[in-house]
């Protein structure tokens, strides 16, 4: 056993590696088995361990995925670094979007759930959200009934996935908060992405008032807050900023509002996720 420990000194088990990269362990295993683009070392009992070089490799994979290349083309890109030799606007994303649109158009909600789960087994949420879920929602907005059914099933699927993740995640919860229902699917998508990185999360999306903020954080025993707030007027914007600033002395606050003591969130899904994980990694390293 000591030789086994020494052999993997400086390496990361899969859950810690997922936390560092933001890529779900399910997806990491799929990349290994189906595509061979990540090859961790294994213990005699089969446990996966990843190196610093694997972190860089996953970052390279994420880069190509975020450029729109399908995962099955990434291995060739990593080998040759020649994107001009490949077709970026690949049929993979078009097919995934069309299958979801067809499923909801035919009322096949279970099939839609399977398509969502399969997509998230192959792609990180940040990529899948941008390349598949958002375009499908945008397309369906012209068909209100189909759009509502799609959002309902997507929310249901995400809640189930998040609940499974949270059974294994520990520590004080990160509270994902919005006061506007239009942000609910975004928050559940972000909850899944952060849950995949081993963060414990709670989602609250309802018309809260600034005065409710402190009591809510205390009730949920949250020491970190992710606030995606949409003030209804200029006066309320100031009230929210003040409420967030009052929490900053006790909590780590991430916000899109200009609040004193808070970390300002970028605009896009992928940038927000990367910003949060990088900040947490830095905090962990400096606390050692």
TrEMBL record:
Q: Name one Pfam family in it.
A: MerR_1
Top-rank lineage group of the source organism: Bacteria
Cross-referenced CDD domains: HTH_MlrA-CarA (cd01104)
Q: Which SMART domains match?
A: HTH_MERR
Q: Which UniProt keywords apply?
A: DNA-binding, Transcription, Transcription regulation
Q: Does the keyword section mention RNA-binding? A: no
* Domain (HTH merR-type): residue spans on this chain: 11-80
Which InterPro entries is this protein grouped with?
DNA-bd_dom_put_sf, MerR-type_HTH_dom, MerR_fam
Protein name according to UniProt: MerR family transcriptional regulator
Instruction: Report the source organism.
Output: Bacterioplanoides pacificum
